[in-house]
Amino acid sequence: MPYIHTQTTVPLSPRVREELTGDLGQAVRILGKSENWLMLRFEENCAMAFRGKTDVPCCFIGVSMYGCPEKEQLDAMTQRVTDCVAKRTGVPAENIYIRYLPTDAWGWNGGNF
């Protein structure tokens, strides 16, 4: 039940979105999660500023999930997500931020875990 929200200044073709969907589906395994529960949102061509500039390709990724992974899992996830997003979008790794939002309150199908 991870939810990954990707916001970027660059355009994302349908092919890139499909490739990222597969990459992120594999990456959530690092967190002990399944692609079967993964929800993704992609926002492209976002108006963003980074390092005081508005013409810099950048990306902000929010990862919300039920439970709190270990630091080693988060380190591995950050590396994997950074690598695949940089490869697929052309955004340099140093211009990619990832925020993790673990929670013990998650609802689904009219109930809570």
Summarize the structure in words.
It is globular, with a radius of gyration of 14 Å. The mean pLDDT is 97. It has helices at residues 14-27, 71-89; strands at residues 3-8, 39-43, 59-66, 96-103, 107-108, 111-112. The strands form two sheets. A four-stranded mixed sheet has the order 2-1-3-4, covered by helices on one side. The chain has a two-stranded antiparallel ribbon with strand order 5-6. The longest helix has 19 residues, at 71-89. Helices cover 29% and strands 27% of the residues. It starts with a strand and ends with a strand. It has one domain (3-112): Macrophage Migration Inhibitory Factor. With 113 residues, the protein is α/β, with parallel strands linked by helices. The chain contains two helices and six strands.
Helical content, roughly?
25-40%
* Average predicted confidence as pLDDT: 97
Number of helices: 2
Strand order of the largest sheet: 2-1-3-4
CATH topological fold name? Macrophage Migration Inhibitory Factor
Give a concise summary.
By secondary structure, this protein is an alpha/beta fold. It has helices at residues 14-27, 71-89; strands at residues 3-8, 39-43, 59-66, 96-103, 107-108, 111-112. It is globular.
